[in-house]
UniProtKB/TrEMBL annotation:
GO cellular component: cytoplasm; membrane; myosin complex
Gene Ontology MF annotations: actin filament binding; ATP binding; calmodulin binding; microfilament motor activity
Biased composition, class Low complexity, residue ranges: 94-117
Similarity field: Belongs to the TRAFAC class myosin-kinesin ATPase superfamily. Myosin family.
Keyword Membrane applies: no
Protein name per the record: Myosin-1
Residues bound to ATP: G275, E276, S277, G278, A279, G280, K281, T282
Pfam families associated with the record: Myosin_head, SH3_VIII-1_N
């Protein structure tokens, strides 16, 4: 296969500092070969001209300094690189076994070793040339690209043979050249001679059809969801990647690089997994965890870490129209390692659980799995204790008319979840409490109201639902009635009690159900973290795996999509910074010849979301501090509007139009809508429900109600909520609004994202982009348009373009001289490291286009330096 052959070329082309290396015949210009030749006493050829361009005598250790972010940026502190920090995006290919396959096309040293089957294919260049010219991509009427053969060309038209033997006549200019057959299915897109959209699509499809779901795109791993079991995992594969007997692109290879780099560079690592809903992020995260657990296991804690998955999935995943097991929260799992490289603990952070699903979900979707699992799998005693009914008898679950998932046994899953809870040391008593809360949430949805006067005021109806809720929470029926039908208010410093109408009471009930469930989820994560905490054994070395919701654009986009897409802008910025910005800045700072490659920067869109306050000229003249600034970003405008008691979703939409209409990433739409130009495309948001969801108010009465419950778990939830409301005082610019119990959802999320980015900034990132090949969740269907749109969204094509033209491997002159100086024929002990580096390059006749000499470092094209 082409990929294997190219790989072997790459391996022999790399510079190997130690260990036995096969002697290659002369003529090769690669450092690896030269190293081998030198060891074997083979004379190297003459030095090429032009080596050492722009070399400078500054020999100090270089530190890449990113540009200072603005004050509102999570990147305000300097990111540092270690001496050997490898390729673009850290995970880079120079450091990764599989990724190093990305060798630019060049004369192969293997070619000199005599003809191989591959060489004979290349031997007859005339027929090859003719064939190559004949292979083209043409666009079919349905928009798909097809690989076809040119039969004849006359004038500006060509006659083509398309797959399935059909013949088409098309304008020659509409055709795109195809790569030679030898490049079909290469395992790194960087190897494609023509990097056009159809070539990339074809290459991924070619591989996908043979269950090769992983492909490198320079430093990024692309994973196409197979929607079926593929024979790529398990102990044999883990062993093969660990021993490096297998190096085709794989999540294992990425996890392996992360592990190795963490140990060798002593820098924390991150594996950042992104993609649309259903693209395979969670599965990919689990596969990475499996590899790390296998290599770093031993103490048993790795098994506990793996067992957090069924728990988090039960409580945080749900069936949606796009994915039967969709994570409705973002997750970062930080796996800690001891000094000997063994896993010694973990820490999980979750982001923005979709609370609204608890009380409302679309037809054909389900609420959180645990509701169905509990009802299906609870043993009789528990069932009686919790007064469980069938799922189709609960109002919250009934509304979507969807109770089961094809091929999933909820009762069996319940057993797996309780088993996992045992493994992560959640006590039997705590488990009972957890399930009591789950049941209480379900029963809350069934609490109904009786209208008691002609102003539509209500009281709860005392029946099975209300009685069960009060028993499960440990409160009296009176207290439950009070919290759901009345509200304490302070008006002009006087305490008054307001009766609630049916709508207000229903909203209060649903808000309580959502808060209970979200608190339960948070509490569970805390318990898991306690169980996995590393305590004294902590060394500070870790690999973090980020599995966060991908960019979403539906027919109707609401507050949830707004937050999710904002998170994706942040992540895209991180991706851009590491793969485009920092990379190119380092070239410029080190003074190498480099023509800047443009890329789609999403800074403007991020500013649209995040810009906090702008100073206005008129306000500068005012002495009042509050008048000096006005909120300017979507988030701060939303936050400000959320604090006005009379504000509505329409006033919010109008405010956006008034302040942001000149912003190129924003467009006001009719009524309550607005459009944002995201890096991944335009999304129209409907502001209906924005303010309420952002305020996410749980009235103080509800918190006090939970605090009064006899069971300890609702009391714990209440203390947590009260603590959050106390924290409000410390938030600058937060207008004081009597009803606000806590920070708005958007602001809290922004804070979480900033912290996340700061954490990720201190790691070497490894990026995995998951691709969903069809919307049907079925195997063997590859929708070109869908795939292309995702590749564009996540900048895969740009990464390949930039990586191909860049120098992903670098090494300081000191390190290079130390490592390879002994190969020099002359004694260089007294020379400076830069001179030694240049001398090595000269002596071994390295092709000038394969490297650049910077002030502090040498920069190499892919595959020129082999890194153990
Ligand atoms: N490597 C794989 N092998 C086999 N099946 C897979 C693989 N990756 C994903 N799948 C299938 O695709 C489904 C969706 O994957 P997953 O839940 O990981 O998507 P996701 O990107 O995390 O989606 P969401 O954002 O909705 O949580 C899985 O339930 C599984 O059936």
């Amino acid at each position: 296969m082409a990929s294997v052959e190219v790989r072997s070329v790459r391996k022999s082309a790399a510079l190997r500092p130690r260990g036995p290396t096969k002697v290659q015949p002369a003529r090769s210009m690669s450092l690896d070969y030269k190293y081998s030749a030198a060891r074997a006493g083979v004379e190297a050829g003459p030095a090429p001209n032009g080596v050492g361009r722009r070399a400078a005598a500054d020999e100090e250790e270089g530190e890449a300094v990113p540009p200072e972010g603005d004050a509102d940026s999570p990147y305000s502190s300097k990111a540092t690189t270690t001496e050997e920090e490898g390729s673009a995006g850290g995970g880079g290919e120079a450091n990764s076994a599989s990724s190093a396959a990305a060798t630019p096309r060049r004369p192969s040293p293997a070619a000199a070793a005599g003809p191989s089957p591959r060489d004979t294919r290349w031997g007859d260049t005339s027929s090859y040339g003719a064939k190559k010219k004949n292979r083209v991509f043409c666009q079919l009427p349905n928009g798909d690209w097809a690989l076809c053969t040119v039969i004849t060309t006359s004038g500006d038209e060509s006659v083509l043979k398309v797959p399935e033997g059909k013949v088409l006549r098309l304008k020659t200019e509409s055709l795109q050249p195809a790569n030679p057959e030898i490049l079909d299915g290469v395992d790194d897109l960087m190897q494609l001679s023509y990097l056009s959209e159809p070539s990339v699509l074809y290459n991924l499809q070619y591989r996908y059809s043979q269950d090769m779901i992983y492909t490198k795109a320079g430093p990024v791993l692309v994973a196409v969801n197979p929607f079926k079991k593929v024979a790529l995992y398990g102990n044999e594969y883990i062993k093969a990647y660990r021993n490096k007997t297998m190096d085709s692109p794989h999540v294992y290879a990425i996890a392996d690089s992360a592990l190795r780099e963490m140990k060798s560079d002593e820098v924390n690592q991150s594996i950042i997994i992104s993609g649309e809903s259903g693209a395979g992020k969670t599965e990919t995260a689990k596969i990475a965890m499996q590899y790390l657990a296998s290599l770093g296991g031993g103490s048993g804690i790795e098994y506990e870490i793996l067992q957090t998955n069924p728990i988090l999935e039960a409580f945080g995943n749900a069936k949606t129209l796009r994915n039967d097991n969709s994570s409705r929260f973002g997750k970062l799992i930080e796996i800690h390692f001891s000094t000997t490289g063994r896993i010694c603990g973990a820490m999980i952070q979750t982001f923005l659980l979709e609370k609204s699903r608890v009380v409302q979900c679309a037809v054909g979707e389900r609420s959180y799995h645990i509701f169905y699992q509990l009802c299906a799998g609870a043993p009789t005693t528990l069932r009686e204790k919790l007064n469980l009914k069938k799922v189709d008898e609960y109002k919250y679950l009934k509304q979507s008319c969807c109770y089961s998932i094809a091929g999933v046994d909820d009762a069996e899953m319940f057993r797996a979840v309780t088993e996992a809870m045992n493994i992560v040391h959640i006590s039997k008593e705590d488990q009972d409490n957890v399930f009591a809360m789950v049941s209480a949430v379900l029963w809350l949805g069934d609490v109904s109201f009786t209208i008691i006067d002609n102003e539509n005021h209500v009281e709860i109806t005392v029946e099975e639902a209300a009685e069960t809720v009060s028993r499960l929470l440990g409160c009296s029926i009176e207290d439950l009635n009070l919290v759901l039908s009345k509200r304490h208010m302070k008006v002009n410093n006087e305490n008054i009690v307001q009766k609630l109408t049916l709508t207000q009471a229903t909203d209060t009930r649903d808000a309580l159900a959502k808060a209970l469930y979200a608190s339960l989820f948070e509490w569970l994560v805390e318990q898991i973290n306690k169980s996995l905490s590393v305590g004294k054994r902590r060394t500070g070395r870790s690999i973090s795996i980020l599995d966060i919701y991908g960019f979403e654009s539906f027919d109707k986009n609401s507050f949830e999509q707004f937050c999710i897409n904002y998170a994706n802008e942040r992540l895209q910025q991180h991706f851009n910074r590491h793969l485009f910005k920092l990379e190119q800045e380092e070239y410029v700072e080190d003074g190498i010849d480099w023509a800047k490659v443009e890329f789609e920067d999403n800074q403007d869109c991020l500013n649209l979301f995040e810009k906090v306050w702008a100073c206005t000229f008129s306000s500068l003249l005012s002495s009042s501090r509050n008048h000096k600034y006005k909120p300017l970003g979507l988030l701060s405008l939303l936050d400000e509007e959320s604090t006005f008691p009379n504000a509505t979703d329409l006033t919010f939409a109008n405010k956006l139009k008034q302040h942001l209409d000149t912003n190129s990433c924003f467009r006001g739409e009719r009524g309550k809508a607005f459009t944002v130009r995201h890096y991944a495309g335009e999304v129209a948001y409907d502001t209906s429900g924005f303010l309420e969801k952002n305020r996410d108010l749980l009235h103080m009465d509800s918190i006090q109600f939970l605090a009064k419950c006899k069971l300890s778990i609702p009391q714990t939830f209440a203390s947590k909520m009260l603590a959050q409301s106390d924290n409000l005082e410390s938030i600058p610019y937060r207008p004081s609004v009597a009803d606000s119990q806590k920070l708005s959802v958007a602001m809290k999320f922004k804070g979480q994202l900033f912290q996340l980015m700061q954490r990720l900034e201190s790691t070497t990132p490894h990026f995995i982009r998951c691709i969903k090949p069809n919307n049907l969740q079925l195997p063997a269907i590859y929708g070109q348009e869908l795939v292309l749109q995702q590749l564009k969204c996540c900048g895969v094509l740009e990464v390949v373009r930039i990586s191909r033209s860049g120098y992903p491997t670098r090494m300081t002159h000191q390190k290079f001289a130390r490592r390879y100086g002994f190969l020099l024929l002359e004694d260089v002990a007294s020379q400076d490291p830069l001179s030694v580096s240049v001398a090595i390059l000269h002596q071994f006749n390295i092709l000038p286009e394969m490297y650049q000499v910077g002030y502090t470092k040498l920069f190499f094209r892919t595959g020129q330096v082999w890194q153990p």
